[in-house]
Amino acid sequence: xxxxxxxxxxxxxxxxxxxxxxxxxxxxxxxxxxxxxxxxxxxxxxxxxxxxxxxxxxxxxxxxxxxxxxxxxxxxxxxxxxxxxxxxxxxxxxxxxxxxxxxxxxxxxxxxxxxxxxxxxxxxxxxxxxxxxxxxxxxxxxxxxxxxxxxxxxxxxxxxxxxxxxxxxxxxxxxxxxxxxxxxxxxxxxxxxxxxxxxxxxxxxxxxxxxxxxxxxxxxxxxxxxxxxxxxxxxxxxxxxxxxxxxxxx
Length: 250
What we know:
Layout: E1 2-7, E2 10-15, H1 26-39, E3 47-52, E4 56-58, H2 63-66, H3 71-85, H4 87-90, E5 95-99, E6 102-104, H5 106-112, E7 116-120, E8 124-126, H6 129-132, H7 140-147, H8 149-158, E9 162-163, H9 164-169, E10 175-177, H10 179-194, H11 198-210, H12 217-231, H13 234-249
Parallel strand pairs: 2-3, 3-5, 4-6, 5-7, 6-8, 7-10
Antiparallel strand pairs: 1-2, 8-9
Helix pairs in contact: 1-3, 3-12, 7-8
């Protein structure tokens, strides 16, 4: 479910739920948490890359696990994910999201918890939650910090998907490269980071996080509460049922 390898000072974490576009469930999130906690004390690791196998970086929360929950349970479920992914901020190492294929909803949210995002030009990024009837339950503050409130408003309320190339134009990702060059570019950048003095990188990361108030977990808690209220509404519940019914027919 989560492959973990260290090579030349770079840790590579790979989501391996390709059959469901690396959708996040509790098992995957908890495996991720354990690895992040391990990396806190790995002095041999100088940079961290997260990627997905198959056709996606990550397609967000697993609706099959989310659908049976009450609104309060669903909000607590999503907040748990936010708290786990926020641990990336506490790592001394810089983190890179290697985005290919789909990065949707919580998948794009997860990418926003990284220090850097490098995407394939052909990747599809977006937050379609409003079309389902609710607000993204986490990473909204980070989205606004990354692209500005006006662009965040447009992305969230239009539910438009962006290519990796367009995402780079608005600063949602740091770089976009052709998919056949994505791995080599991420390797090159991660290796460069790993060659730098660790103290300078970790101190700069910590300082930038400290002066970036929209990254605060309090915004994730507020989004989770708003999500709870939305998720309880009949329109949202009907969208969930429709989504699962379509999946069952495939």
